[in-house]
């Protein structure tokens, strides 16, 4: 399945290039937006830190968004092509089938993230990259956690069909804002402290963004204020539990769809 | 089609029949979208989320320097223009809402061509006696209405959320910019439809193009921040002039082409050139495709 996805991916070079260009345009737009609010004479170090906040948050957002879209969308594609039922009659493992759907896009996102760091680093004169090893561990567990959310969405796609895409879209924007992917959590706190305390703190994705970003920037403490130990523990727990819960949810929805005979219905 | 003149299948549709084609396509599209109420709601919400991101980012940047974000934003505008605004929230909201109009127009028209190709109905459309122009007019009219509904809802909801008032001044002028801006957008959509017809991969092209547009339109920033060559290129782009015109009208800041008259004159010229150019390119692409592999191949 992964190989098939990579081959399919390679057949659409324009899509490949488009995704690449798109990422740089989004980052460039945010950099220009921050420039519009940067007072003249702001020290370069401050600009670098801000560039890091944007790009490191964006990397987590990139993985989350691609995982959510790819799993749900590819299930939908199988539904509309009429191949989903045949696939489920095969003895292939369902987990492998689901994970394989995002393998190619995760590889590509990794490459994109690396180049994005180089790009922003080039623009702002270098980005801080402290604790890279630990940040990578946080990233791996975060991706594992996102896979769990992706599994849930695969199930939701089977159930809700076209509407699931709308839900993914909404959820993507929800995380973008409440997990502070493009700005520090302090910005949300400035609007109202209840946003961080009442919403952001309850989202595991927020801890993924915060831990990854704060580690790379080399902050003394992560922004959400639980301390390094707790935040990393939450990310690890999210990475371990989310796929299990996600897959369990998916299996339940799939079983119900099979019983009702609506698996291939679109 | 009931009003077609002539008989034996050789008749050309009359004006009533042409109007009926536009109306039928328009109503059919509206009926389809009416089934997806969530989509309309999301379309209104997306510009608000888009506007919220630079607002939150900007607030942090200015706060880090111990400054008021509105004042810093005003200083940035003053670097290139004699007037400025501290109402950066409304500035971002207008940019994001106008961007959603442009993006929806391109997406709905470009994706219409692609969808007809995929479902295998595009070739059948070419066998109908109605000219594509009228079918496209129906699709674009629908796209415009849908985009405007999203625009108005986004401005209203966003104004409530950001606690800004977009109705203080310049409403008629802003509406004039939007109305004239529809024509070049129409032409741009035809160009885009032709491009999709030719290269097929609609999704990726639409996605990348909408970000190119957002970048050149200055959705999150004044385009005076762009390097001179990019700034000049952006100024030749109809969506940039529309966004700039709406912002300048509602926020009482400087126009990209010096004055409201200057910007309106440029937009008016674009409104004449773009639809003609767009439709000509669309027809040319169609003719070429019909001669070669056919329009239905995807």
Q: How would a crystallographer describe the biggest sheet of chain B?
A: none
- Beta-sheet strand percentage of chain B? under 5%
Number of strands of chain A: 0
Oligomeric organization of the protein chains: heterodimer
| Rg of chain B (C-alpha, Å) | 21 Å
Low-confidence stretches of chain A: none
pLDDT averaged residue by residue of chain A: 84
Calculate the terminal CA-CA distance of chain B, rounded to whole Å.
Answer: 29 Å
Q: Helix and strand succession of chain B?
A: HHHHHHHHHHH
Q: Number of helical runs of chain A?
A: 11
Distance between the termini of chain A: 22 Å
Count the domains of chain B. 1
Mean pLDDT of chain B: 85
Shape of chain A: globular
Tell me the radius of gyration of chain A.
Answer: 19 Å
Assign an overall shape of chain B.
elongated
Domains of chain A (count) = 1
The secondary-structure element order of chain A is HHHHHHHHHHH
Structural class, from secondary structure content of chain B?
mainly alpha
Low-confidence stretches of chain B: none
Q: What does this protein look like?
A:
The complex is a heterodimer of chains A (266) and B (298). By secondary structure, chain A is mainly α. Chain A has one domain (2-35, 45-260). Chain A has eleven helices and no strands. Chain B is mostly helical and 298 residues long. The model of chain B has no long low-confidence stretch (mean pLDDT 85). At the A-B interface, α2, α3, α7 and α8 of A face α2, α3 and α8 of B.
């Amino acid at each position: 399945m992964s190989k098939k996805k990579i081959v399919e991916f390679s057949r659409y070079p324009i899509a490949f290039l488009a995704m690449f260009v798109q990422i740089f345009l989004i980052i460039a737009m945010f950099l220009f937006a921050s420039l519009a609010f940067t007072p003249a004479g702001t020290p370069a170090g401050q600009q670098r830190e801000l560039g890091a906040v944007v790009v490191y948050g964006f990397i987590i957002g990139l993985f989350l968004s691609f995982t959510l879209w790819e799993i749900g969308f590819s299930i939908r594609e199988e539904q509309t092509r009429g191949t989903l039922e045949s696939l489920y009659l095969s003895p292939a493992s369902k987990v492998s089938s689901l994970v394989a759907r995002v393998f190619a896009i995760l590889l590509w996102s990794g490459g994109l993230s690396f180049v994005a760091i180089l790009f922003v680093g080039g623009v702002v004169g270098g980005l801080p990259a402290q604790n890279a090893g630990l940040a990578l561990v946080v990233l791996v567990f975060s991706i594992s956690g996102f896979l769990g959310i992706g599994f849930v969405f695969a199930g939701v796609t089977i159930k809700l069909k076209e509407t699931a895409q709308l839900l993914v879209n909404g959820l993507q924007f929800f995380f973008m804002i409440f997990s502070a992917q493009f700005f520090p959590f302090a910005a949300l706190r400035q609007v109202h402290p209840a946003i961080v305390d009442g919403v952001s703190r309850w989202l595991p994705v927020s801890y993924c963004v915060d831990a990854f970003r704060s580690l790379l920037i080399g902050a003394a403490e992560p922004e959400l204020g639980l301390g390094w130990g707790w935040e990393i523990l939450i990310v690890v727990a999210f990475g371990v539990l989310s796929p299990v819960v996600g897959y369990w949810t998916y299996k339940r929805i799939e079983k119900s769809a099979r019983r009702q005979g609506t698996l291939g219905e679109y | 089609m009931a009003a077609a003149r002539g008989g034996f299948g050789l008749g050309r549709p009359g004006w009533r029949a042409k109007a009926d084609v536009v109306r039928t396509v328009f109503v059919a599209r509206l009926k389809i979208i009416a089934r997806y109420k969530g989509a309309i709601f999301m379309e209104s919400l997306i510009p608000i989320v888009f506007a919220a991101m630079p607002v939150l980012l900007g607030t942090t940047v200015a706060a880090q320097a111990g400054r008021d974000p509105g004042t810093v934003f005003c200083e940035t505008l003053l670097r290139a223009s004699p007037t400025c605004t501290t109402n950066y929230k409304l500035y971002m909201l207008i940019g994001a809402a106008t961007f959603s109009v442009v993006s929806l127009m391109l997406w709905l028209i470009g994706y219409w061509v692609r969808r007809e190709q995929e479902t295998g109905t595009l070739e059948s459309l070419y066998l109908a006696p109605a000219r594509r122009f009228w079918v496209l007019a129906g699709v674009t009219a629908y796209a415009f209405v849908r985009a405007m509904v999203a625009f108005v809802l986004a401005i209203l909801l966003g104004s409530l959320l950001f606690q800004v008032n977009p109705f203080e001044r310049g409403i008629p002028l802003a509406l004039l910019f939007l109305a004239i801006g529809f024509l070049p957008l129409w032409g741009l959509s035809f160009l885009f439809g032709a491009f999709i017809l030719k290269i097929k991969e609609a999704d990726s092209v639409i996605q990348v193009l909408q970000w190119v547009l957002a970048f050149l339109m200055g959705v999150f920033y004044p385009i005076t921040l762009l390097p001179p060559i990019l700034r000049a290129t952006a100024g030749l782009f109809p969506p940039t002039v529309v966004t700039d015109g709406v912002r300048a009208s509602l926020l009482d800041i400087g126009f990209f082409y010096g004055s409201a008259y200057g910007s309106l004159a440029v937009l008016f010229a674009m409104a004449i050139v773009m639809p003609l150019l767009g439709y000509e390119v669309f027809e040319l692409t169609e003719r070429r495709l019909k001669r070669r592999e056919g329009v239905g191949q995807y």
